[in-house]
């Protein structure tokens, strides 16, 4: 489990410390290694890496934390992880950056299933557009397998989808 929020990471680590199959890392994944700033929000599920563009109301951000950023390729190399059966990405708008940091794994077909949180309409400035994630993964022979956890546009109270969790399957044929 990879969690950039220090407090949430501690909770994960404590919850799984007795399970030798679970390793919890306190870092963020991105397109390149370096340092980032985590905007910690009132609701931990909306905390996100600072990207320059404002994606939540400024009053929702309660703190900022420095966080190490690593690519998924480097993380897996360091941990001797050769393949991933199921990769769940929920990076509040940085999902495509996580995928860009996994080019080696994607190109070699080392990840079987990938689930990403995707925006479904142009007004959604928080999530990566579904079309961008789909195009990136299709270039690596992934195909849409399913659409889950559909969320309507509650912010603007409009009758269309805000976001979905899209599941992509490696097309190994």
Give a written overview of the molecule.
- The longest helix is centred in the first third of the chain and has 11 residues, at 6-16.
- The protein has helices at residues 6-16, 72-78, 95-100, 103-107, 130-138; strands at 28-29, 34-41, 48-49, 61-70, 84-89, 111-119, 142-153, 158-170.
- The chain contains 5 helices and 8 strands.
- Strands 1-4-2-3 form a 4-stranded mixed beta sheet. The chain has a 4-stranded mixed beta sheet with strand order 5-6-8-7.
- It starts with 5 loop residues before the first helix and ends with a strand.
- By secondary structure, the protein is an alpha/beta fold.
Structural class: alpha/beta
Please tally the helical runs, counting DSSP H or I stretches of 4 or more residues: 5
How much strand content do the residues show?
A: 35-45%
Across the major sheet, the strand order is 1-4-2-3
Fraction of residues in H or I helices: 10-25%
Bulk shape? globular
β-strand number: 8
From the N-terminal CA to the C-terminal CA, the straight-line distance is: 30 Å
Query: Which residue ranges are poorly predicted, with pLDDT under 50 across at least 5 consecutive positions?
Result: none
The major β-sheet equals: 4 strands, mixed
Calculate the mean pLDDT score and round it: 88
Q: Mind telling me the C-alpha Rg?
A: 16 Å
The helix-strand sequence is HEEEEHEHHEHEE
List the topology elements.
Blueprint: H1 6-16, E1 28-29, E2 34-41, E3 48-49, E4 61-70, H2 72-78, E5 84-89, H3 95-100, H4 103-107, E6 111-119, H5 130-138, E7 142-153, E8 158-170
Parallel strand pairs: 1-4, 5-6
Antiparallel strand pairs: 2-3, 2-4, 6-8, 7-8
């Amino acid at each position: 489990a990879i969690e950039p929020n220090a407090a949430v990471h501690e909770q994960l680590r404590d919850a799984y410390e007795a399970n030798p199959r679970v390793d919890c890392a306190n870092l963020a994944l991105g397109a390149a290694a370096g340092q980032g700033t985590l905007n910690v929000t009132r609701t931990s599920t909306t905390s996100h890496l600072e990207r320059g563009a404002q994606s939540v109301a400024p009053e929702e951000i309660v703190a900022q934390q420095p966080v190490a950023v690593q690519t998924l390729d480097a993380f897996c190399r360091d941990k001797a992880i050769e393949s991933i059966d199921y990769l769940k990405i929920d990076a509040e708008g940085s999902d495509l950056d996580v995928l860009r940091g996994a080019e080696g794994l994607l190109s070699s077909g080392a990840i079987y299933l990938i689930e990403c949180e995707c925006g479904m309409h142009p007004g959604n400035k928080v999530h990566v557009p579904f079309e961008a994630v789909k195009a990136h993964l299709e270039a690596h022979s992934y195909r849409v397998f399913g659409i889950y956890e559909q969320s309507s546009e509650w912010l603007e109270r409009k009758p269309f989808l805000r976001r979905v969790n899209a599941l992509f399957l490696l097309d190994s044929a």
